[in-house]
Amino acid sequence: MATTTPNLGLKKPAQSDFYNVEDSNGNSDLIDGFKGEFDKEVVDSRARQIENIGYGVQTGLDVIASATPDMNVHVQTGVIYMPDGQRFQFDVVTIIAVSAANGTNPRKDIVFVSSAGAITYLAGTPAAAPAEPALPAGAFKLCVIDVPATDTAIEQAQITDSRGTIKKTLSEHLAETTHIGKNKQVKVYSTASQSIPSGAYTTLVFNTEYYDDAEQHDNAVNNSRLTCKEIGKYLIHSEVLFASNATGYRGVRLRINESIIDGQFIVGAVNGNQTSITFSTIRQLNMSEYVEVQVIQNTGGSLDVLGAGSTKFGMVRVG
After folding, report:
1. Comparing C-alpha atoms, which of 192, 195, 189 is closest to residue 217?
2. Which tens digits make up the pLDDT trace of 26-59?
């Protein structure tokens, strides 16, 4: 009696059965069909790999007003990768009806892709100074719509795009980030020594750059800062050299946005020699966040942190 294979359902004749051309052809068709589906999945998988560098809008999904403005907006076709890695493709334009304007106060509404893959509209609360509604967990915002009091038609100028920069292709991503040498990096120093008072943390300044490939430092304006120009994890490092003095201790710490303290180090003074402190830390930085080095000493008087390249500060994006 004939049986079938468990996965493709191919017919397996028994030893006593005669050869059946229809069964053989049917098995061939099943194998060929599976091969076609497998090849398509390989192509689709490669396409997803090329697209999926992080998450966000890959193509399209811009939100536009009606050609003749009314209370509708139109979400265009496109592809998006969600924060949890899901991929959603929208092949038809989605028309969204904006709720009627309040008679007294303006309102901010949002349009987003939900975590379930639905293009969704959420009206805000009317107020004299309205705030947009909270984005649901796992969702990705496409735009904010400003709805003035008594408004009867949404103009394009009322729609603020929230999609951000379209994600890079895999080849572009690899070209920029496959090794540290091509990542954002900066290293600076000061040509002159800096006098540090006793007993209080002082922020160091740096007026010369070894290198700076993304305008992360300015030699004159806010020259104590290294500023993040691309979100990511950064290896932050510094070498500080204090002038010779045998009294007390020396300390170095990292300050982020003038408030968050990270990587604090305290050492005893070196008797009869200069005191050197080297430190490094890895820290997640967001766009426009900046880091600074602060130092402290307690000799009872002023003490120099030495210049001429003796004291250095830098960071490089590593992830």
Report:
1. 189
2. 767 777 776 667 666 655 655 555 455 557 888 8
Exposure class string for 296-312: b at 16+ Cβ within 10 A, else e: bbebeeebbbbbeebbb
Residue 49 backbone zone (phi > 0: left; psi -120 to 50: alpha; other: beta): alpha
Helix spans in 101-255 (H): 170-177
**How many Cα atoms occupy the beta-carbon half-sphere of 141 within 13 Å?**
17
Which domains does the chain carry?
1-36 (no CATH), 56-170 (2.80.20), 180-317 (2.60.120.40)
pLDDT of residue 125: 96
Instruction: Give the tokens for residue 4.
Output: 């079938």
- Cα separations in angstroms, 87 against 47, 66, 115, 173, 223: 11, 27, 10, 19, 43
In sequence order, the β-bridge partners of residue 280 are 237
Average of per-residue pLDDT values in the chain:
84
Q: What is the Cα–Cα distance from 298 to 197, expressed in whole angstroms?
A: 8
As a whole number of angstroms, the distance between CA 230 and CA 285 comes to 8
Closest CA to 98 of 72, 60, 127, 76: 72
Stated pTM of the model: 0.46
